[in-house]
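User: Here's a protein and a ligand (nicotinamide-adenine-dinucleotide). What would the complex look like?
Assistant: Let me lay out the input and then the predicted complex.
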Amino acid sequence: MSSYESTVRYFDQAAGMMGLSANMRKLLLTPLRELKVQIAVERDNGEIATYIGYRVQHDNARGPMKGGLRYHPEVNADEVLALASLMTWKTAVVNIPYGGAKGGIAVNTKDLSQGELERLTRKFVDQIHDVIGPDTDIPAPDMATNAQVMAWIMNQYGKYHGFNPAVVTGKPVELHGSEGREEATGRGVVTVTCALLEKLKRKVNHTTVALQGFGNVGSFAATFLHERGAKVLGVTDASGGVWNPEGLDIPALLQFTKERGSIKGFSGGDALSNEELLASDVDVLIPAALGNVLDAHNAENVRAKFIVEAANNPTQPEADDVFHRRGITVVPDILANAGGVTVSYFEWVQNRQHFKWELARVRTELDRIMTESFDRVWEIAESRKVPLRVAAYLLGIGRVGRATVLGGL
Ligand code: NAD
């Protein structure tokens, strides 16, 4: 099943319960605009390299479209569309005034120098600057893009349209970024994890965790979990993995990855493969890397009681069915990882008001939105007797549907 087919299946599950007509489903699912562009850049050695870039603007019924920009060799039109539609439901679940979009370039950034990465980013902006903007579509970081990439986007966009930092979020704090944006997705993941544990009367400091991915989201999630007393037993990244039944020393692992670029060679535990991590005996499994990692083949092997989807689209519908049957609770991506877009919204608000918030305010507002959103989804799940994913879709689709009807065609 392709990534987009998965998201449509999740959509249909909820849309069916809501009694949405076929015409309304089609209206809500059809993207507003799909763009595929050529990006030709000069390599440092003088050769020309050509890449394909994408931007999909899915829905703007609730406000300007918002979504990350992913640089990864496997980026393709189907995946970007799937991720754009997830953004539509996600921004609605946390009730921030945005629609959904997503973009990306099919490229392995490990093959590029910093100068090549900058030229690639600026060329991409040359191709899409007409269709993005603070009131239309606002990109942000995703896999292999960071604050520096966002700074180049702001600068290149400004060459066409004048100074307007609100065109992109996730910028460096020194250049109109927000305090707390970098940590936001990981922090939100931990807030909803703790909210779930609390509902089930479990203690965070008696909880064990395994994490796939130790990039932006995974490393901050690990840090906040560690701070709250949970034991992170296993972590993997693209280079390999590490397992310590006593709990990994997360600050030491962070320091190590900062110096070495990956967790390969970390001596604070035993080697661990991705498959072993996904099947490890922990309370909470947090996929925080790629999509589609939990599928029909490995779902039966999962031993965690709870799965918190920090990554986008990590669970294929067949696996989701298995988890439901086996009583494994899944906190879905459109709720679990919404902390990033929430603080992106705070950054946009600050840019538009030319007024900077302190970190404490960002954290307080983020924690409030994540907790309230979790509680709302939990209530729907309880009252309708459905899994949290269906509840989140019911909430998100309901809000987008109402905005669509109120706004009219
Ligand atoms: P990142 O590039 O900072 O980190 C990605 C991590 O995944 C790295 O540690 C990398 O080594 C690891 N990884 C890559 N391939 C792997 C593999 N085959 N096996 C195990 N690990 C692998 O990206 P990120 O920003 O942390 O994003 C991670 C996920 O979270 C993505 O699904 C992204 O869409 C989602 N997400 C990110 C944000 C955000 O604010 N950055 C917001 C919402 C959702």
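Summary: The pocket of nicotinamide-adenine-dinucleotide is lined by residues 141-144, 185, 212-218, 236-238, 274, 288-290, 310-312, 337, 340 (CB under 6 Å).
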